[in-house]
Write a structure and sequence with these properties.
Number of domains: 4
Number of helices: 13
CATH superfamily of the largest domain: Histidine kinase-like ATPase, C-terminal domain
CATH topology of the largest domain: Heat Shock Protein 90
Bound molecules: adenosine-5'-diphosphate
Number of strands: 17
Strand content: 15-25%
């Protein structure tokens, strides 16, 4: 049986004291609170003050009789159950009372068991009603909570400073917040419901959004990041992530847009500054380097200066050489970042260019007793549309690194082939190798692996960032496979013709 913590209050209304007291004795043993009234008026006064659930009402009373009380209860709309107490002579009246809305009746004389049965039935009814009310309140509260939660989330999304749009599997836009509309230059009242390409002009971004929405991967990933020039000097960064259903199925995608114009401007200012400072430093440093070389040469010729002087000057010359290399790399990087290095696009025989790089660097490899070979696979070598300086920089850096980070007597192979409309060039060495935890980091500016093998090798930490920026600009990719102690393979894939 369902229970409710609030006790059930029962009012016994009868002009006969014996009946009232008898009822109280029987009912007290039930789980309820019992009050009594000797006439209709007193009963109504009590009902005004207290909330009763059940009223045992004698129909035949002097003055205001039971029917009058019942009518008054109906009139006031009190939600209580009335059990009328009737004498044999008034069974008809009892039926009439039931018609008037009484819940049940009990004929006089009744014994305690009969009274208990009738009242317990009414009490069960009260409890059921209370439970139903409680459930209804709970249900409406849950709906209310859900409603506030929903509106809270939608208010947050609406006021986000970044643009947010949600697409269905087909690429149809089902939601856009105000920031998204203003970032892509739409009116604030622009309606959703159309394909993403209706709202964004950038073809590449639309393609990526559709792929992620429908469950395809973009460049081997479930997510994408892409920069967007929206005219003039304004840039946006778009990111796409899949939206999954509860069963892990793809429902669509969520796309965020952020304005990165200020970051771009800062980046440009930084590159300009680095380029300017590097440029200013290069000439005096080269002069110092040459003059140190001349002094060292004279000392050797004349036999002047002691060994320590010569050692100090040689160290200074070596350090200036390192600085000049660093400046050269910094200038290269800033030229690449400004796009200057990939401008001079022309058909290039990559096979020949690789041949000349290998020939140029062979003496360096031989000085470490390393073998350096070029393997060309296949029999047709189509030309690649690219800037030859950029290609030289990419493969010159990779082969030089392979020589630097491979011990004496090692072997380096440059294997090239044309595969699927792309040149695929692998620079393979059996040198020191690179621990997987450095694999991503070595493409960051100035990152160098410091261990017993590399401790004495000088470098700038800018070679691989230069390579990566160039490969990215040419629409290609660079991959690394490497294991410490076994060697490394850097594989560059470049399309035969650049994308528009
Ligand atoms: P640098 O060679 O001037 O230090 P790079 O950017 O070219 O700078 O390379 C970054 C780091 O990556 C190097 O310091 C080296 O530790 C590691 N590295 C690059 N190429 C190889 C390779 N072929 N084998 C092992 N380690 C390498």
């Amino acid at each position: 049986m369902l229970t409710s913590s609030k006790p059930i209050k029962i009012l016994v209304v009868d002009d006969e004291t014996d009946i009232r007291e008898g009822c109280v004795r029987v009912l007290r043993r039930l789980d309820c609170e019992v009050s009594t009234a000797a006439n209709g008026k007193e009963a109504l006064e009590l009902m005004e003050k207290e909330e009763f659930s059940i009223v045992l009402l004698d129909l035949k009373m002097p003055g205001m009789d039971g029917m009058d009380v019942l009518r008054e209860i109906q009139k006031r709309g009190w939600p209580l159950l009335v059990i009328v107490i009737t004498g044999f002579a008034t069974v008809e009246t009892a039926i009439e009372a039931m018609k008037q809305g009484a819940y049940d009746f009990i004929p006089k004389p009744f014994d305690p068991a009969q009274l208990r049965i009738v009242v317990e039935r009414a009490m069960d009814n009260v409890r059921l009603k209370r439970e139903a009310e409680r459930l209804e309140i709970e249900r409406s509260r849950t709906l209310e909570d859900l409603d506030t939660e929903k509106s809270r989330i939608s208010a947050i999304v609406e006021s986000l400073p970044i643009g947010v749009a949600v697409t269905e599997k087909t690429g149809k836009v089902v939601m856009m917040n105000p920031s998204f509309r203003s970032l892509v230059g739409l009116d604030q009242d622009a309606k959703t419901g159309n394909d993403i390409s209706t709202y964004i002009q950038d073809e590449e971004l639309c393609k990526a959004v559709k792929m992620v929405s429908s469950g395809q991967q973009v460049n081997g990933e479930d997510t994408f990041t892409c920069e967007l020039n929206i005219g003039g000097e304004r840039y946006l960064l778009a990111r796409g992530r899949p939206v999954m259903g509860e069963g892990g199925e793809r429902l669509g995608a969520v796309v965020t847009l952020g304005d990165i114009t200020s970051i771009k401007i800062l980046d440009q200012m930084k590159s300009d500054f680095v380029a300017k400072v590097s440029h200013e430093l290069r000439s005096p440093l080269s002069t110092i380097h040459e003059q140190l070389g001349a002094v060292l040469h004279d000392m050797a010729e004349e036999g002047s200066g002691d060994d320590e002087d010569q050692y100090i000057l040689a160290r200074a010359k070596e350090k200036t050489r390192g600085l000049i290399a660093l400046i050269g790399d910094l200038l290269d990087l800033s030229r690449i970042e400004s796009g200057a290095v990939t401008h001079n696009i022309q058909p290039v025989s990559l096979d020949e260019l690789l041949g000349s790089i290998v020939d140029f660097l062979r003496p360096r490899a031989e000085s470490k007793r390393q073998s350096l070979t070029l393997e060309l696979k296949g029999d047709s070598f189509p030309k690649i549309e690219a800037d030859p300086m950029a290609l030289e920089s990419i493969f010159g850096n990779l082969v030089a690194n392979a020589i630097n980070y491979t011990g004496n007597g090692g072997s380096i192979v440059v294997a090239a082939e044309v595969d699927n409309g792309c040149w695929k060039v692998a620079v393979r060495d059996n040198g020191f190798g690179i621990d997987p935890r450095h694999h991503e980091k070595i493409f960051e500016k100035f990152y160098r692996v410091k261990d017993d093998n590399t401790r004495l090798i000088t470098g700038t930490g800018l070679g691989l960032p230069i390579v990566k920026s160039l490969v990215d600009r040419m629409g290609g990719k660079i991959e690394l496979e490497s294991e410490p102690g076994k060697g490394s393979t850097f594989t560059v894939t470049l399309p035969l013709a650049p994308e528009d």
